[in-house]
Amino acid sequence: MSGHSHAKTVMATKMANDAKKGKVYSKYGRLITIAVKDGGGSGDPLKNSKLKAIIEQAKNANMPKENIERAIKKGTGELAGESLEEVSFEGFGPGGIALIINGITDNTNRTLGEIRSILNQNNGKIAGEGAVRWMFERKGAITVKTEGKSKEEIELLAIELGADDVSSNGDTIDIYTQPENLDNLKKALDEKQIIIESSSIDFVAKEEVTLSEREKEQAEKLFESLDDNDAVNDIYSNIKN
């Protein structure tokens, strides 16, 4: 099972290469501002679980504390900010892969035009609402590090704690559960001293498709182009890893 956003992988690579930090921080800033607004204007991570999760991700990306605080204040209204809204687009990519592209923008029509253009230039096309979303389901996703424990030990423990599925990915393991069980599972893993790298509610493909090497290269180019767009935060597909 694969569900983590391709944009998160691209973002992590950029941070590892110490490149485009400004754009990455800007994206996290918008996510933080929206999370505050969605939480009724609460800038307290202890009272706003969505905000807490995004701040953790931002800190893992080494986003400066002052940037985080400024984004929170834009959400509470203490500082002036853009008029932002969340957007979600559906489409198809190389090899007919299904795509869900989520983001935050101050101009929906402009962003839609940009996404359509990127897809058209990379063997893809925009799709109507509902054309793709039925191929995915919402899952709580937790990525943990295997430091100090075997993969088998962590996988068995995750299942015992209520995980629906686990997937090994190098020196990390992706753990999937029902969205409403995410916080409880995360807390239980933490109590077992499992190192949590990230957690989020993701779109997970019900069935995955296999691409040729050429199509994979085209898909990676598409993901890079989408991630370069300031509005795009998450890109989900049904590609089989």
Architecture (CATH level 2) name of the largest domain: 2-Layer Sandwich
What are the secondary-structure elements, in order, as H or E? HHHHEEHEEHEEHEHE
Q: What Rg, in angstroms, do the CA atoms define?
A: 18 Å
Give the amount of beta strand, in percent. 15-25%
Strand order within the widest sheet? Answer: 3-1-2-8
Largest sheet: 4 strands, antiparallel
CATH topology of the largest domain: Alpha-Beta Plaits
Query: Which oligomeric state applies?
Result: single chain
Q: Find the CATH superfamily of the largest domain.
A: YebC, transcriptional regulation domain
Q: Give the fraction of residues assigned to helices.
A: 40-55%
Report the CATH C-level class of the largest domain: Alpha Beta
Helix vs. strand class: alpha+beta
Determine the N-to-C terminus distance.
Answer: 9 Å
Unreliable spans are: none
